[in-house]
Amino acid sequence: MTAQAGGVQLDAHLGRHDVDATDDVADQRLDQTTFTTAQQRGQFSRLVDQRQNVLFVRGRRRCVQQRAGQPRAARPCIYCYTCVSTAYLRQPLRCAVNPDTGFECERSEAAKSLSAPRHVVVIGGGPGGMEAACRLDEAGVKVTLVEAGARLGGTLRFAALAYPPNGDLLDYLTAQIGQSTVDVHCNTPATPDLLRRLAPDAVVVATGARRTMPELPGADLPHVFSGDDLRALMLGNVAGEGARKAGLGTRLAARLGAASGLSANAALIRTATKAWLPLGKRIVILGGELVGVELAEFLAGRGREVTVLEPAPRLGKGLLLVRRMRLLSELKEHGVALQGGVSELAIEPGAVRYKVQDDTVVRVPADHVIVAMGATGDTSLADTLIAQGHRVEVIGDATGVSYIEGAIRGGAEAARRLLGNPPVERAA
Ligand SMILES: Cc1cc2nc3c(=O)[nH]c(=O)nc-3n(C[C@H](O)[C@H](O)[C@H](O)COP(=O)(O)OP(=O)(O)OC[C@H]3O[C@@H](n4cnc5c(N)ncnc54)[C@H](O)[C@@H]3O)c2cc1C
Ligand code: SF4
Fold this sequence. Notes:
single chain, alpha/beta, Rossmann fold, FAD/NAD(P)-binding domain, five-stranded parallel sheet, 15 helices, binds flavin-adenine dinucleotide, binds iron/sulfur cluster
């Protein structure tokens, strides 16, 4: 059934959605011009925010996006509002977690051509690697997935702490891998030597971004954490630099979390960190792109006084229009100080110094500083493998930070190319 409101066909715009009778729509302020509850069929509701005159399409807890010939699988919506934002940006509709949405005809099931590889090694178990592995497996290709870390998920595991809906996607992707015949090897860093021994017909490199600490005065001070330090600490990597910087109690907690497996559970960590988080009251985050502003929301929700400093004039790069607008206004409501256009950043003991556009020098107190900038693509492993003669597809953040959408789309498109299918044309 196609629901229609204001000339917008939601099924066409948002892919296929199913009914979840348990969904509670009572909390939605529905505009009379949109659906009645029954018409929504429990999936998507269209909200008109009268104050801001902003249109939201709110995904239900689960949006069902079924692949032909497959048992029904629920691919969760991560409420990124990419689908809604495209309308404002005059771009073709797309969904961040389902690359087939809006391209159903072009992407009718990928068939395996005679030239398709028989064995593919996927390196990296983040969202990009998992998506590529599942799609190749579905098409009947033998897939070996090697992941350097102890668990699948990659950066999405950390992203699930900062923004809970990402956790649903993590669960979905890992469950899909669990139901597949993909041969998964965790704690297995891929090296040229390993690839020589595995001798696959093709390799998908999905190793994520390189995160280096930018050269800032004071970046080596003990109260400064890189995003990776924080991740290592919260996800229980006791050998990481972040753990080294933390106190004994924190290191012990991280060790216990890792040993008991508790730090594998994002929901549990989110709850636990509401009671205890090894960070001072005043936090300055350097970098106001998606990662910086999501970390700000996470920390503000845990009673911290947060300031976000960003060299670009606008904050929220990486968030599409509607989610950017919502998140930035929510952060302001929660008292997070947001400052774009800063220059001459320098970290001092107990403070961060910066200049604003009129050349005024400002000093903001900081018990801890989190550096959420400096991520770049990293094709070094892929380049080595190509030089060794492997057929290589590089995807996701390894090609330059492209977020969940770029990683999943990259995984889908790499699988498509490897299977010998023509690329999907995207209208401008
Ligand atoms: C705090 C935070 C919040 C975020 N929130 C969002 C969000 O709300 N929305 C969004 O779109 N994006 C978000 N992101 C970004 C998003 O998580 C990443 O863009 C995405 O995970 C990239 O996927 P990927 O598969 O390319 O790489 P990754 O997820 O980084 O996975 C790469 C994997 O490769 C493994 N690996 C690396 N080298 C090797 C090797 N040699 N051998 C074997 N394995 C290897 C790594 O261990 C890792 O598991 C967030 C990021 C952070 C840090
Ligand atoms: S684009 Fe984002 S908000 Fe829209 S359906 Fe997909 S995951 Fe949900």
